[in-house]
Design brief:
4 copies of one chain form a homotetramer. The first copy, chain A, folds into 2 domains: 159 residues, Four Helix Bundle (Hemerythrin (Met), subunit A) (Up-down Bundle); 244 residues, Alpha-Beta Complex (paralog of FGE (formylglycine-generating enzyme)). Helix content of chain A is 30%, strand content 11%. The first copy, chain A, has 10 helices and 12 strands. A 4-stranded mixed sheet of chain A has the order 10-9-8-11. In chain A, helix 2 packs antiparallel against helix 5. Chain A is globular, with a radius of gyration of 21 Å. The termini of chain A are far apart. Chains in contact: A-B, A-D, B-C, C-D.
Chain lengths: 436, 436, 436, 436
């Protein structure tokens, strides 16, 4: 009775062309894509929160709407009435500047508002936003709307990752969609490509056209040494070799905090997050269900600790974010957009590397870097309550780069900095090696 | 969009007459009542588990069905095929004799099976059960079916209490049903009724007609001293006087373990579970919503620690279960059934005492006793895996007596022993005083 | 450098004769025995608290002194100056009536006052007490002094059990004293002795001579059924048979809460507390060190859950406290004192049963009963702050009877009720079976 | 009875001259200083562990000895017999390469070995080491001995900080030593000194003379922008102004993880670790006892979160470690050693700034930087089990620079990198501001 197969990524294509659309059309495209992503869901799927980090889809749908209501409508539409005053508190994620927040770990303890009520909320806000967009929109307001859309795209990705966590931990292993992947061919042996050191520029010019987050700026000089970057991602097969070599049992391969996590009595690591051993054979859960592990696909859903241990085992290291960005821009023809296996491909799973040269920099999996998530020199946060968007998370997290198979293509840039705690595994995160 | 008011208790009336029905009709009546109780629910309400003890309605509906499938159909119907083999694990509550169980605190982390699938499961099992019941049913099988129905009635009560916990902790305070209660009149001042000590008999004769749980037997002698029992339950107003007298801040009134709970940093007690202070005025959440506290209604949703502290403050004590049973049977005309404010009244909330004499012994709220839940002398558990039904919980819990406003009337007896941990508050539990 | 062998129990003999001594001599005997028990200790042993329940010896020595200072000297000696005003807070165990308490789990985080300072504290208080005792002591004061002495005897027992927990969990397994036990002979096969039911009296007459705690009174009628009691304690060998029969892995043998404890990820039970398997052979730690397990000695340091599981496995049950008391008094020649392996024997370990008839009722190990620790009908706590002595613990605990090999003989009575949580194991607790 | 005043820092002077001594004399000087630091201790002070991070002095004394026994004596002295084979496990801190470790949080649960036994252990190992040092010592061995001495110096500092945590959390506030500080004069108003950006070199040349840890190398280029550094540390008075301005209650000043810590239900931050408000007046605990807060002294014992929040409030930021090192070396006359308020001053407390120019870079308090503790480009860990010394901690920690008032002067260098978690407060850690 749960409709399978509805999702094929095509619906995200409109949103993809964002940069060519006017703001109204962008608004409709992005807002619509959120609903499209939810189409295959049963009502029940919208509600639960299988761990503190993985919010219910219902919450995502409401929270991104809250963003427009609180930062745009309430501020800029005279006489605007909140859809439900209780929602200001319920759907505030972490904006202390706005007020108190409903506790994050309890988001899955709310059966009301129902999904239908959340959809009504979206409709109510959308109508008001459309009306607002019909008038002349000043740059400051346009900026906040654009920010709201990129914010919603981030939550589209989270919606997929959180849903995967829900379904992938259900003993019945239900699928989100039906997708027939042809067997991947074995990638070429891993090789390293050289890059020259010296002074490079990374980051985004604050005055640049198009959209960028505050944390990507300012553009600034960095000093690099010569380095090499692996030409593709590490595969399941390669990671299995690491495991078979005692990878998870050899403390000398691990950072101290990582070793503690590996040995955690309750949630110790023994394999990537969605690997399941059934009758002695490894399987992997993906959004189209549980299948035998494909050794040729990129390894996915691992923590930075596992990535780092793998790198040490392989006599390599993780790249810094500056190295990653320098390499990534070196292969982008100027003005071209990132191309790769993003959400629009409909795969919702990383794909095998094909061909040679610098592969898989975009999409497939987020690539852990060794760089702590820290302010660029001269960093200035967004103003007002929106200043809480990025800056306050600059502690204890690491930067990931390149987007994943559930990232909307129009959301990503070479300067884009994603960030998670080194022990986090529920994002589509994988390994690219580097060495001196 | 959530339908309110559908529930009015009338639908439980058929099931009430259970003892006069044949087994098939009983089966249909009880099974049907579970669905009726769920009618006002939104799909979302079926799914969540707001705390470890409060299981999702969906889980209750499936688990009671599992009981029939595992203990009846699989055992007695040759060639019977399980609806879904994964359910044996998913919906086993605590029967180690049957196998492993899905962890209780994670019941709210399952969006699948959906509600519709659970309803299909019920239909599948019901059809097989009806068929089974059409044939000659042997006594042993009849017993297990009857047990299954009483088991389902227990979960009907839990369904209400768990749902109340869900909705009552939602900041929006949604109602389960619409119910207009006329203002309660002030009860008569509390008075104590005397009962003579000596050797009495309590418990249930194992060979008695009708149904009884193993923990109610055997009937046996107890030696009581003369005692007095309060003629009615303690009211909200009386409990508020205790609170205003510093009840929650005076350690000398509390058992040591209770004082620890009162002062728990995270979940300390400061008032009954569903009392909410809004702008300095006390309100109480009930299944028909949040309303100003009615001082004349019985206090409800308190732990045994609070009941005990109140009793000490009032220079009284809680009754033992033997005292309670002796008193309760003394006012029952032989052969009469318990009469009171049970689930069939449609109130789903305790009512004020009216009149005089021994009031409110039945229904309204479960009455904490001072008796530890322990085996009666000569206790014999049910045989086989069903032996896990009651006996293994005979540690650390206290007995409650008399049923509540969400107990099906046909489920209760004067010998009925309910049991919860002294710190539990999410059941409809209240205070009856006793003294020497 | 740590002196071994100093303790041999002889020093407790003086205190044993307590009932024949005047109050001054009793005071000196009991206070002196506390110091004697500490003689073999290194300073370091006085300081640490290896778990929340096991307080440092230094704390015991100070707390029992605090009792006399706060309840006697401060109240009855005009102009008495506290030794150190900070001690009122530091050494208050749980008397809310006296004031705030230093948190129990942090008792082992205090290096000051030093042991020498605590000894000074004892000397200071002792001098004042001796002076007080030289004057005419009124009955109320005499009662409080006697209570203080029995209180100190309780802490003498705790001192041994807490110290055993410390040393027995040290990987070096240091001994408290040197003691050469000759190998125990195999006891006679277990047999059950019959006792007649009917109305019996248990408990202590409030007006009786000598000392008794409030929780032992009043003496009252109980109604018993015919029962049988095992003639001796369960041995290590018998318990090992239970283990070899899968005792710790068979859920059907366990109370639900016990099964949870057995399977606790951090501190699950797999054997009695001080059993250690070394190279495949069982050893037991005792206060004279680690030795191969003696199968003929009573099993010791088990929880009530383990005792209950063993009983179920053996088709028996634990006795109620009333059964125990009736049986124990039946074999005491009127007026005789309990005789058994108490602290005065110098063994500090349970001994094997010898002979026949009802053995080992006194000393060796505390015997778990199935009785919840609850007030006797008509129970009246001590008055004032001393009312917190016993009554407030009457929740969630079980009664143990008979004393142990570290109990001072003059401390025990047939009506004596000890109480611990069913999961506690660090006391010398063992198994006596009963059956209907 | 606890001897006060014995410590005055003079005894560390010999060790200070380390670089001019031969290895034997260095060994004796450093090993002796550990004992001198312990002289004022009562036996009891050696034993306890007031929190998981603060190990008992006894453990420190044994662990540094273990280092010499395991890495030097066992490896290089044929036929060497371990003092006690059990110590290999008991006193291993974190070297997985050596074997299992006794759990860190339980170090304070060991009363044995006694202090006297640990002193015997030191003597035993010292005698063997002296003998070893009398022979020709090869460079590789000399390196390990030197490492062992620097290791011991680190633990000398920890011994002071852990002891302060013990005594400073004792409600009696005992002092470690008597020290009369004259009242500090008010420092000059804070001013910022400019430093030029560009390519600088930091870190230590692997081939350089003298000792350095692996994490300080290799020396490498860094690219800095022009920056300014505060000429002195932030004072208690300045921090109090921040507090009075609502510093601990304004989320916009805090990193998200810091805000979580501030609001932790159990151990939330409301002031620096050793500040105590008594009758409305702020006091500060120091190793010479509790005294009224001196507003002119540097603020001390704060987390990086508090330092960062203060900096944000002051419109400044924390320096990077490269900025710090560039500034520090700019004011060192080549070849000169760091001079400041180190352990040798006998103060054991930070002192007020006097004069102008770049003050207090050395000693007083460790200065939090904004730099994550990460490998320098080209980092190579020590070989063998010693490779666990530094590298494996390169996650989630921040670098601190400059040493403190309990650091031995001969232990510090301009390239020295200390590291702690951003929430740690029990080290002598304070604030130096920077800005662009």
């Amino acid at each position: 009775m749960v409709r399978l197969g509805a999702y094929d990524g095509a619906q995200f294509q409109t949103a993809r062309a964002m940069s060519t659309l006017d703001l109204s059309s962008q608004y409709e495209a992005v807002r619509g894509a959120s609903l499209v992503a939810c189409e295959p869901l049963a009502i029940e799927d919208y509600v639960i929160q299988p761990m503190a980090d993985a919010s219910p889809p219902k919450w995502h749908l409401a929270h991104v709407t809250w963003f427009f209501e609180i930062f745009l409508l309430r501020e800029h539409v005279p006489g605007y009435e909140l859809f439900n005053p209780g929602f200001e508190y319920l759907f505030n994620s972490y904006y202390n500047g706005v007020g108190e927040q409903f506790p994050r770990p309890r988001r899955g303890q709310l059966s009301r508002p129902t999904v239908a009520e959340v959809m009504d909320y979206r409709g109510y806000v959308d109508r008001a936003m459309i009306k607002l967009l019909e008038k002349r929109v000043e740059p400051a307001m346009a900026f906040k709307i654009t920010l709201g859309l990129h914010h919603e795209q981030q939550h589209q990705e989270l919606l997929f990752t959180d849903l995967k966590y829900n379904l992938g931990n259900n003993p019945l292993f239900p699928a989100y969609h039906q997708f027939k992947r042809s067997a991947a061919r074995q990638p070429e042996p891993l090789s390293f490509l050289p890059f020259a050191g010296g002074i490079h520029q990374i980051g985004r010019d604050s005055g640049a056209e198009g959209f960028g987050y505050d944390n990507e700026s300012p553009r600034h000089d960095v000093l690099l040494r010569d380095f090499e970057l692996a030409d593709r991602l590490i595969t399941n097969g390669e990671f299995l070799t690491f495991m078979d070599d005692g990878g998870y049992r050899r403390p000398e391969l691990w950072l101290s905090d990582g070793w503690t996590r590996v040995n955690d009595a309750k949630s110790g690591f023994t394999a990537p997050l969605y690997w399941r051993q059934i009758d002695g054979k490894w399987h992997e859960y993906g959004l189209s269900g549980l299948t035998p592990l494909d050794l040729n696909l990129p390894v996915c859903h691992i923590s930075a600790y596992e990535a780092d241990a793998y790198a040490r085992w392989a006599n390599a290291r993780l790249p810094t974010e500056a190295e990653w960005e320098v390499a990534a821009t070196s292969v982008m023809t100027s003005g071209k957009e990132p191309a790769g296996n993003f959400v629009e491909s409909g795969q919702l799973h990383p794909l095998a590397s094909e061909g040679s040269g610098l592969q898989q920099m975009w999409g497939d999996v987020w690539e852990w870097t060794s760089s702590s998530y820290a302010p660029y020199p001269g960093f200035r946060p967004f103003s007002g309550a929106l200043g809480e968007y990025n800056g306050k998370f600059m502690a204890n997290q690491l930067v990931l780069r390149g987007g994943s198979c559930v990232t909307p293509a129009s959301h990503i840039r070479s300067t884009y900095r994603n960030f998670f705690y080194p022990g986090d595994r529920w994002q589509f995160s994988g390994i690219r090696l580097a060495r001196d």
